[in-house]
Amino acid sequence: MTEPERNRRLVVLAGPTAVGKGSVAADIRAHHPEVWISVSATTRRPRPGELNGVHYWFVSDEEFDRMVEEDDLLEWAVVHGQNRYGTPRQPVDLALASGQPALLEIDLQGARQVRQTMPEALFVFLEPPSWEELVRRLVGRGTEDEAERERRLATAREELAAQPEFDVSIVNREVHAAAEELVALMEQGLDE
Asked: How many beta carbons lie within 10 A of that of residue 32, not counting itself?
């Protein structure tokens, strides 16, 4: 099997809120430029330091509606009961066609949708070392008020229960180590 053929398999990374999906993806982006990482569209407002087109495509509700209507999204969902997130379809198709290792970093709802449309993808669940550590990370990042933290923790409990739906799990004890473990899985192909 040639290198581009082996790497054409899409890898989907999901896990509970505050587990560090974005941090793991950022580490991969910094240390593995050969890996293409999808940039999701969202209707939520940017957090401090987030850049449009780098961290997310920040779009209006009207633009998101248009993307849904025109089937421009591989998956999309309402997350934490308020904001919509989705994966633009065309960049994923182009990355896979070019033979690049391709990664989607998305939420559980999105991963379930991708499983319906691309069951051949490798689904990786990122889990925290413990519930207490997940709570510490969510509170420690200081980007949500108390009501939002409680909403996200309730969602996280449900998301953790979905771990058996995934092909592989990685425990995020340390971001760089988790990122390297994920890249190693991508390089193996796991479809040999």
From this structure: 18
Six token digits for residue 90: 């065309």
- Which pLDDT score is estimated for 138? 80
Reply yes or no on whether the pLDDT at 6 is more than 50. no
Instruction: Give the right CATH number for 3-188 from 2.40.128.110, 3.40.50.2300, 3.20.20.140, 3.40.50.300.
Output: 3.40.50.300
Rounded CA separation 178/176 (Å):
5
**Degrees (nearest 5) of the Cα angle 171, 6, 170?**
5
Residue 143 neighbours by CB under 8 Å, 6+ apart: 47, 48
Nearest-Å Rg of the Cα atoms of the chain is: 16
| Calpha distance 19→127 (Å, rounded) | 6
Query: How does pLDDT run across 78-104, given as a tens digit for each residue?
Result: 876 789 999 999 999 999 999 888 999
pTM comes to: 0.83
Residue at token pair 């997940």: 134
Give the tokens for residue 33. 């430029």
Sign of the Cα pseudo-torsion (15, 16, 22, 27, in order): negative
Residue 81 DSSP one-character state: T
Integer Cα distance of 118 and 11 in angstroms: 10
